[in-house]
Design goal:
Layout: H1 8-41, H2 55-79, H3 83-113, H4 125-156, H5 166-191
Length: 193
C-alpha cells in the first residue's frame, strides 16, 4: 500500500513514532558527546583511572533490565486482552523505575563515601563526568516514568486494547531505549578508564 494512501490514523501513528525516534537520536548524540568528552579528558594528568564503580550502579542496572522485561510482559498481556495482568506488569515496571532512581542516588552516596565529589576542592574531572552523565540519565528516566504513568493511567481507563496499542508501544520503545542507554553507560564506565 502506498504511504500517501494511508488512513489518517496510520499517518498520525507514523508521525508519532518518527518524532520519538528523532528525540532518541538527539539523546544518543548528547550522550555520545559526553562520553567522547570523557575519553578526551582521560588524557589529562589528573585523570583518575583506579576507581571502582559503586556496587549500587550494578544493582540499578539489574533493576532497569528487569523493568524492560516487565514492560514486555505488559505488552504481551495486552495483546492477549489480559488487562489485569497488563496493569500489574506496568505497575511493577513503574516501581522498578522508581527503585532504579533510588539505587542510583545510593550509588552517588557510595561515591561520596569514597571521597569523590561532583564539584569542590576534592572533586576530580573523572568523577564530575560520572556524576553528570549518570544524573542526566536519571533526568531522562524521570521522563520515562512520566510517560509510563500516562500509559498506566490510560490502561486503567481502558484506552488500550490488542488492536490499539500505539501509546503503550511508544512508551515501551522509550523505556527500552533508556534501559539500553544505561547498560551502555555502565559498561563504558566499567571498561574505559
Amino acid at each position: 500500500m502506498d504511504v500517501t494512501q494511508s488512513s489518517p490514523e496510520e499517518k498520525k501513528a507514523r508521525a508519532k513514532k518518527m518524532m520519538l525516534w528523532f528525540g532518541m537520536a538527539s539523546l544518543i548524540m548528547g550522550f555520545a558527546g559526553w562520553t567522547s568528552a570523557y575519553i578526551v579528558s582521560s588524557t589529562r594528568e589528573d585523570w583518575i583511572d583506579d576507581f571502582a564503580l559503586p556496587s549500587a550502579f550494578l544493582y540499578s542496572t539489574a533493576m532497569i533490565i528487569i523493568s524492560s522485561f516487565t514492560y514486555i510482559l505488559a505488552q504481551k498481556s495486552l495483546k492477549k486482552d489480559q488487562n489485569y495482568n497488563c496493569t500489574k506488569w506496568l505497575g511493577l515496571t513503574f516501581l522498578l523505575g522508581v527503585g532504579f532512581i533510588g539505587v542510583q542516588f545510593f550509588g552517588f552516596s557510595q561515591l561520596i563515601g569514597q571521597g569523590y565529589y561532583f564539584t569542590g576542592p576534592s572533586s576530580s574531572i573523572t568523577m564530575s563526568y560520572i556524576f553528570l552523565i549518570a544524573a542526566v540519565h536519571i533526568v531522562h528516566v524521570v521522563a520515562g516514568l512520566l510517560s509510563l504513568l500516562v500509559v498506566l493511567v490510560n490502561q486503567l481507563r481502558g484506552k488500550y486494547s490488542a488492536s490499539n496499542m500505539l501509546g503503550m508501544e511508544l512508551g515501551a520503545t522509550f523505556w527500552h531505549f533508556l534501559d539500553l542507554l544505561w547498560v551502555y553507560l555502565v559498561l563504558f564506565f566499567y571498561f574505559y578508564r
